[in-house]
Amino acid sequence: MNTPTLMGSLVFAAVCALLIAFLIHLVLRGWRRRAERQLALIGQLPGLPDTVGPALIGGINGLYVGSTLAPSWQDRIAVGDWGYRSKAVLTRYPEGVMLQRSGANPIWIPDDAIVAIRTERGIAGKVMTHDGILAIRWRLPSGTEIDTGFRADDRREYRRWVSDGTDASSNGTEVL
Which segments cross the bilayer (predicted)? Predict the structure, then answer.
């Protein structure tokens, strides 16, 4: 390879590296701005309770898909660590629902904040087969409604979450 060709290749590689770094910077800046915009809507998140009663539905293993602003299944919440997928265990208590995430803070959904528990085809940019995701719609203390998505390792577990109180005309939606 002669010197002009080598220099041209190095310049092209440097320009490509700078372009990629700039694009990554824009994506991260957009994510931070989204979090800033959502902070006013989200407000204070519910704290973990000091004690809970016995589990009504034992922990099921799966994947925390993400939380979105309702009703948009693609408007992912970017506040804190809520925007990142992680392995999780979902448990139902008389006082609410606990979503214990691996490598992230747990999410506590108080029982009186739950609006509906249903199965969905997709949430937070994750699309599955029919009824592949368990979606919990709940109201934050700020009044904003969000959907929290969970994909169980064994989707037969969803029946225990949506069967009690299911209205046949609501296509698997449990309204609490």
Answer: 6-28
Any bridge partners for residue 146, and if so which?
69, 138
Angle at 111 between CA 161 and CA 167, to 5 degrees: 45
Report pLDDT digits (tens) over 37-76: 877 778 777 888 888 888 888 889 998 888 888 887 777 8
Q: pTM value?
A: 0.71
Reduce the DSSP state of residue 94 to 3 states and report it.
coil
Sign of the four-CA dihedral 15, 16, 17, 21: positive
First-to-last C-alpha distance (Å) of the chain: 72
